[in-house]
Amino acid sequence: MFLRGAMRVQRKKALVASMISLLLGAVLVYHWKASDSSVLNVQQRLDSAMEKLIERNARHWENSYDDIPYHLKQTSVGSLARNGCMCEEDPQSIKVPLADLFFPRVSAQDLKLAFRPSKLAGVKQRRQQEYNDFRRRSQSAADLLIVAEPNSPLQYPTQGLEVQPKRSVLIPGLALKHKPRSLYSVNLTASMGIFNMAATVNEVQVSNEGKMHIALSSRALSALNRQLQFITYTNTIFHPNTADVVQFGTDGFQAAFTIKIRHEIPPKLYDPGPSAEYNISALVTIATKTFLRYDKLQDLIDSIRLFYPTVTIIIADDSEHTKPVTGPYIEHYIMPFGKGWFAGRNLAISQVTTKYVLWVDDDFIFTSNTRLEKMVEVLERTTLDLVGGAVREVTGYTATYRHTISIEDGGEEGDCLHIRRGFHHIIEGFPNCVVADAVINFFMARTEKVRQVGFDPRLVRVAHLEFFVDGLGSLHVGSCDDVIVNHASKIKGMLPWGQSETDKAYSKFRYPAASNIQNALFYFKNHLKCITSN
Amino acid sequence: MFLRGAMRVQRKKALVASMISLLLGAVLVYHWKASDSSVLNVQQRLDSAMEKLIERNARHWENSYDDIPYHLKQTSVGSLARNGCMCEEDPQSIKVPLADLFFPRVSAQDLKLAFRPSKLAGVKQRRQQEYNDFRRRSQSAADLLIVAEPNSPLQYPTQGLEVQPKRSVLIPGLALKHKPRSLYSVNLTASMGIFNMAATVNEVQVSNEGKMHIALSSRALSALNRQLQFITYTNTIFHPNTADVVQFGTDGFQAAFTIKIRHEIPPKLYDPGPSAEYNISALVTIATKTFLRYDKLQDLIDSIRLFYPTVTIIIADDSEHTKPVTGPYIEHYIMPFGKGWFAGRNLAISQVTTKYVLWVDDDFIFTSNTRLEKMVEVLERTTLDLVGGAVREVTGYTATYRHTISIEDGGEEGDCLHIRRGFHHIIEGFPNCVVADAVINFFMARTEKVRQVGFDPRLVRVAHLEFFVDGLGSLHVGSCDDVIVNHASKIKGMLPWGQSETDKAYSKFRYPAASNIQNALFYFKNHLKCITSN
């Protein structure tokens, strides 16, 4: 009896063991099937897609009319993009004192002078390496030139096609418009996806369905074109943001178009709340950085509270011996001593939870002219991302510091940065407001856009335009001169146009003795070789 | 004599006064000419450009083959983008305890349940308003569908054209390939720029040069085509990031293509320094957030220092009573009490000055398996922006928390977010590494990319996947299971698969009782209506 009992126990154990194994096996199979274990070199596929386009460009459309003469126009030559760029200074035409103040001339800075000559070769080589990696990560087949062949019987989409990774899309607009013939055939080829039919049409033969290269043929042209209305492209090689090249061909003709493959970028929206008017406390956070100037900071806070008692004020503080800064809706952040100007700015904006952020310096004073509602209105009713105001000095001089900026391609030596006083145009409906590329350090901006650009914490001391340079192509920048904040600092210098902090920062770009740290950063980080400014 | 002296003084004053006026006048003229005072409604021009394309789409290429029948394929229908989206739960097929643990089924969450029914209508209406503004700011004519007409004598560029704001570009690839006729003519129209000739060719008549609509004609086709090699487009209506539509036509045929108008986005590069190997201290900053756990934090720091004595560690601290955390290369930031998890994360990354940032929780412990060099190698040699590692619990269970994420278009009700365990594919050359869309909270990433996505400070308590949802379309995410950090917290729960913090965050998506704050944010901020996850 004992033996039978022992065997029964053993059998039970065996049974339980096999059930557990079965269960584990089932779990493993379930999870294994859920993931695609294929090993892929996505980069190869991307390169292959781009190479196809580049080859095609070299072959197909470069017409040769070299025998026909032309007359170059002098004016055009200068304005076209050249194969390198130059930073040219204006000659000093009026040699009188203060000439530059009245008639600002363009001066140039050579950025490689920020490096010791012995180090420069290494810096340049590492910069080129980082730059090539950056270009590789940010370019796709969607950026390459494609030229449509004339007199081609092919109809196809040339832009606007997009598919999410690993998903499918119906390709619109495919058709063949040949003259009558006995057999009509087309083929489609891709590098990062496959083709399928969403529906089938009689009289059409399809070969290689579900592959990267399919061919369709039919004796009836209308049947073939009906079938072409049901072609789907399914991305099979995952990439979060790239493009595939589709080649669409028939006897003697070839067309190419790209399909963007990318995750849909989700919006980052803010709820303005149910108020009918602009609720400044719900929409705006005031951000500032302070260093050693608690008295000025308190003056700023007191002046804000006269007009906006419940707006949140975020203070980034890198003073050596910090004092508490308290009060309702005050958020005081303590940084390690001396971390710096842009580190403090980046910290402050990183904490904002409202749709807009207003940047102020800690020595500003709000007055009845500091109507934040006006700035909110511009941002709500236009596509601007950032709108600057005006800063009034003690003397009455009011500055908006409007500048335009552009970067000119320069090749391996680096690009050319051009900074000019001025703006692009006045904004219709807002006669006090203009569009520019850089403005003064008193501005309201969309929190998400300002954070996307960011204030580079590598800039420890005076810096200003770096933010707007980093923002090129991302920020739509404006400036309204009817929203005014007062600047509490003493007059520096004897001219009516007193030297303020702003002017000092500005001066960095006029005079060649600019900070080495800033220039070294422009050189490496932004791949620049020189700056012109006026 | 006195009178003559007085008159001389008066004359001098008058002279000085007129000289000053002249000078001021000259200065004013100089500065006035520097700025373009035109008042522009840029939005109207953009809309006009986009409308042209939409009209053209409606007219030109929609072929009608409605009389030809087709057979829909069942499999295709599901995978194509639908006109709305659905969040469908898997039915509970196996009704045994712990079934969900072994065979995770898909569960769904309805996000509008985060709002009180009385508030929902207002929330939904404001969300739609914000969403429409967002779409308006982020779309351009370059996103619209264009279909190339077949059998057209026009040759033209279909993609790849780009010009900086207010600058010029030569348009490549324009040509006319008509059959012989007595007169050949073409015309070009734009909305945000003008056309010019970089060079002129004999026998070609050009009208309206320097305008938004030019016409060219010639009796000699080769002369016309030679002239077409010298057409330039100059953007005249400033916008930092948009596209113009160019219509290129001849008798009976019309083509359309877009030219992107945008500032060149400057790169943001980091100098890795002259070392031949990976210099972790120069390349990587470790970032963490702490709250009340100074002992665990010190254990973390001590463990890091065993292997990386000079790597900078940034600590964001929102404890109520903060203690100093000191040591070489330690940066301790004090936040207002309880600002929260993602506010702390956003603060920490805002302070990084190296190319890469490594995120760690304050209760991790570095071991000899925590080889940061491996993560750096993956980021240096692939296009990944972020690579997660593995976190080993006390029990030995090691988690990588790999998930794939996608967003399906849903229309006005909002979109559908789908989260699944798993990954996309293994990375060639890195057999321990895969590509996914979300990973565990132990990862190294490119500082610039992580800051561009950001950690939303509106998320105060537990949150994790929100960062990866915000990163969709921006971050290329990977995961390597051979870089392991230990998790110092106690075992929670009895299963070998113990409930860690990670699992708790994960649980939020499995069980409908998820945080209202998180769901409300998904609903409004990301324009979602529901979430499915397994």
**Alpha carbon gyration radius of chain A:** 32 Å
Largest sheet of chain A: 11 strands, mixed
Class inferred from helices and paired strands of chain A: alpha+beta
**Number of H- or I-type helical stretches of chain A:** 14
Helix content of chain A: 25-40%
Report the count of strand segments of chain A.
Answer: 30
Task: Specify the CATH homologous superfamily of the largest domain in chain A.
Answer: Spore Coat Polysaccharide Biosynthesis Protein SpsA, Chain A
CATH level-3 fold name of the largest domain in chain A = Spore Coat Polysaccharide Biosynthesis Protein SpsA, Chain A
The stretches of 5 or more residues of chain A where confidence is low (pLDDT under 50) are 491-499, 505-514
Strand residues, percent of chain A? 25-35%
Mass-distribution shape of chain A: extended
From the structure provided, what is the oligomeric state, counting identical versus distinct chains?
A: homodimer
How does CATH name the architecture of the largest domain in chain A? Alpha-Beta Complex
